[in-house]
Amino acid sequence: MDPDRRRRVESWLRYSEDLGLGPYYRNRASSPCAPPVITAPAQNPEIAAPKRAPAPAPPALRLTPSISTSPAMKPAAPAPSLFEIVDRVQNDSLDRIREDLGDCTRCRLHKGRTKIVFGVGNPQAELMFVGEGPGHDEDVQGEPFVGRAGKLLTQMIEAMGLRREDVYIANVVKCRPPDNRLPEKDEIAVCSPFLMRQIDVIRPKVICCLGSCAAQTLLATAQGISRFRGEWFDFRGAKLIPTYHPAYLLRNPAAKSDVWKDLQKVMAHLGLQPKRR
Ligand code: SF4
Fold this sequence. Notes:
It is a single chain. The chain is built from 8 helices and 8 strands; from the N terminus they run αββαββααβαβαββαα. The chain has helices at residues 3-18, 94-101, 136-141, 148-159, 185-202, 212-219, 246-251, 256-270, and strands at residues 25-26, 38-39, 120-121, 127-131, 168-171, 206-210, 233-235, 238-243. Strands 3-5-4-6-8-7 form a 6-stranded mixed beta sheet, with helices on both faces. It starts with a helix and ends in a 7-residue tail after the last helix. It binds iron/sulfur cluster (SF4).
């Protein structure tokens, strides 16, 4: 197994241990080139055991745009992503996810945080926004997108004819990275399964990824967001569209028109009317 895949599987196994799953056994009958086959005894009936041998290409992670037409992109990471082997948790809920998260110390980001920023909004939202991680204001208040970039996001949501409380907002990692740096790969690998569970519970029709980190994480690609911004993808039963992060728009106001085009696609898909002035 290559080191990157080994690290992902190890992170997932640690996460499963936290859920009370395991022990796990390698199915040595499988091909050495195939993804690891993980089996688990059904110890806890409330928690779904991971499925055997993930299918070769689950539809959730197509990197070919699913609605609009554009040149097909080659996935930068051809290996199955972490999320192909993260199974859904039966009878899951946002309360249970928060409870499982607890006073989390699973990665180094816990050392500098003030508050865990779990997520906020309508638990039955049709539209979910996903950013990269909390900043200073979010860390202090425990709520995502409440600083300057957050205010801009709220304006964007209202321009779509929605209120902030109509949508759900979460991040790839739930603790603030120091000095507002991007989350590291290992931090994302440990924390993002909780985001996957939030997505599975909320079951939005549309996920709008804000910025490269969120888009690259969910689509398991290393390509820059400008290559696929505004394209539609299938992701865990939802339509996913990547666009620029509001913080980028604060630095580059000219990009607002691109983002508005992306949001108009979302509005058309959800049948929303723009806010009347
Ligand atoms: Fe836990 Fe996520 Fe915070 Fe890391 S970022 S300590 S995994 S809640």
